[in-house]
């Protein structure tokens, strides 16, 4: 009598072989068990970053997504650890086949394999070098020359290559969330709060303008000289529907349905931007926080964590993580599908967290209430008496 098939091992062997020969495209783990906690699905796929090939691991709960980009061998080990314990189903897609595995506690799992001809269409690895042209910004356009990103020949200026990469990455993220957002009819409106030198404001305008609808993009910047310089560049380059205004984020009223971006808004300016977005029922929010000064002086960790926070750098990082967790929970509590992930490589800046929120057409009241409760528990556990976003009137409203 032959031994029963070890279908889990067969699928993991297929994962290892596809990783070795470069044919791996995607692994999706589903059917979570109790050990998975709140995570409902894990997706692993290859991405090409500046640092080289990585495997992006995305964990999705009912309310949000988190992403990390470990080395391929680390991601493979994680998949082997999770499959059969935390998750009982797997879909492995390669360039030559698709494998579907269903596991059961009391009998061998069912493994099916389809060849390329039978397999469904799959997503290719993400790479800056093989993206469709339609998904790229046009850096030969006059506005990039006006901003000093490119020269008279349309070539990226020396020293601006990293900035170009950041701009392109932002545009990709914005396109991704636009595809998932429920947008209002008519004019597309977006406010970039804390627009600085305007690079990402122009990128947002270019992305929205390509949709073929009327566009109103406004960059709001506290420093009048920067707002004026960006306004001149927009006028000189003929960017219809793009304007800049000098002013503070907290004092900026937004029309209902205005999308909001706020990248590297300092300290509680990020919270101000999120408050403005929630007040406008923004269908899409992208925020990359900068410094986190509000929580740090208040931080009072529970006794069992005291040893982790004996030094200033540990307290600083905990404050950052706690602040951004409260911000993500605020969006989830307000009816948004929320993701927290790495925006750009840490070799450029360690302030590289992006918080993304896409407003759900039908928010789940129970999930919103749970997010509120979790935020309250975090504040109480770490002694956070004041937090600008959660203390705002907007968070007292039920979506």
Provide keyphrases for this structure.
14-stranded mixed β-sheet, 399 residues, 25% strand, globular, alpha/beta, 9 helices
Short structural description:
By secondary structure, the chain is of the alpha/beta class. Helix content is 32%, strand content 25%.
Structural notes for this entry:
The protein is 32% helix and 25% strand. The protein has helices at 7-21, 72-82, 142-146, 161-180, 199-209, 224-236, 269-279, 312-333, 365-382, and strands at residues 24-32, 41-49, 52-60, 64-68, 87-94, 97-104, 107-115, 188-193, 215-221, 242-246, 259-263, 284-288, 336-342, 353-359. The longest helix is centred in the last third of the chain and has 22 residues, at 312-333. Mean pLDDT is 86; it is low at 117-134 and 345-350.
- Rg, alpha carbons: 23 Å
Broad structural category: alpha/beta
Beta-strand percentage range: 15-25%
> Helical segment tally?
9
Uncertain residue ranges: 117-134, 345-350
| Strand element count | 14
**Helical residues, percent:** 25-40%
Chain-averaged pLDDT? 86
Query: Biggest β-sheet: count, sense, barrel?
Result: 14 strands, mixed
Strand order in the largest sheet: 7-6-5-1-2-3-4-13-14-12-11-8-9-10
Query: Given the C-alpha coordinates, what overall shape results?
Result: globular
Query: How far from one another are the termini?
Result: 61 Å
**Strand/helix succession:** HEEEEHEEEHHEHEHEEHEHEEH
């Amino acid at each position: 009598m032959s031994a029963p098939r070890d279908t889990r091992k067969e699928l993991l062997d297929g994962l290892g072989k596809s990783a070795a020969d470069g044919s791996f495209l995607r692994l999706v783990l589903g059917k979570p068990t109790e050990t998975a906690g709140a995570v409902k699905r894990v997706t692993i796929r290859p991405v090409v970053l500046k640092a080289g090939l990585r495997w992006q691991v995305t964990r999705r709960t009912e309310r949000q997504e988190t992403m990390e980009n470990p080395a391929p061998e680390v991601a493979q080990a994680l998949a082997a650890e999770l499959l059969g314990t935390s998750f009982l189903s797997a879909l492995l897609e390669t360039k030559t086949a698709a494998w579907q595995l269903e596991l059961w506690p009391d009998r061998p799992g069912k493994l099916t394999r389809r060849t390329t001809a039978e397999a469904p269409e799959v997503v290719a690895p993400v790479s800056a070098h093989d993206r469709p042209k339609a998904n790229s910004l046009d850096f030969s356009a006059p506005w990039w020359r006006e901003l000093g990103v490119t020269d008279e020949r349309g070539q990226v200026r020396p020293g601006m290559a990293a900035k170009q990469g950041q701009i392109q990455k932002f545009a990709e993220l914005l396109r991704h969330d636009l595809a998932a957002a429920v947008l209002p009819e008519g004019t597309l409106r977006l406010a970039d709060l804390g627009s600085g030198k305007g690079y990402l404001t122009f990128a947002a305008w270019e992305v929205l303008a390509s949709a073929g609808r009327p566009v109103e993009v406004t960059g709001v910047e506290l420093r009048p000289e920067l707002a004026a310089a960006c306004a001149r560049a927009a006028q000189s380059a003929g960017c219809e529907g793009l304007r800049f205004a000098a002013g503070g984020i907290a004092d900026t009223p937004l029309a209902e349905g205005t999308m909001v971006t706020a990248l590297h808004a300092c300290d509680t300016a990020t919270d101000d931007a999120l408050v403005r977005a929630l007040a406008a029922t923004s269908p899409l929010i992208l925020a990359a926080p900068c410094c986190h000064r509000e929580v740090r002086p208040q931080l009072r960790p529970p006794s069992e964590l005291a040893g982790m926070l004996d030094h200033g750098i540990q307290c600083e990082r905990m404050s950052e993580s706690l602040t951004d967790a409260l911000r993500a929970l605020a969006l989830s509590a307000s009816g948004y599908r929320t993701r927290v992930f790495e925006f750009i490589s840490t070799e450029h800046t360690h302030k590289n967290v992006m918080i993304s929120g896409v407003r759900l057409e039908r928010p789940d009241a129970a999930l919103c209430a749970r997010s509120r409760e979790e935020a309250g528990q975090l504040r109480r556990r770490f002694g956070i008496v004041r937090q600008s976003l959660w203390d705002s009137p907007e968070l007292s409203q039920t979506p």
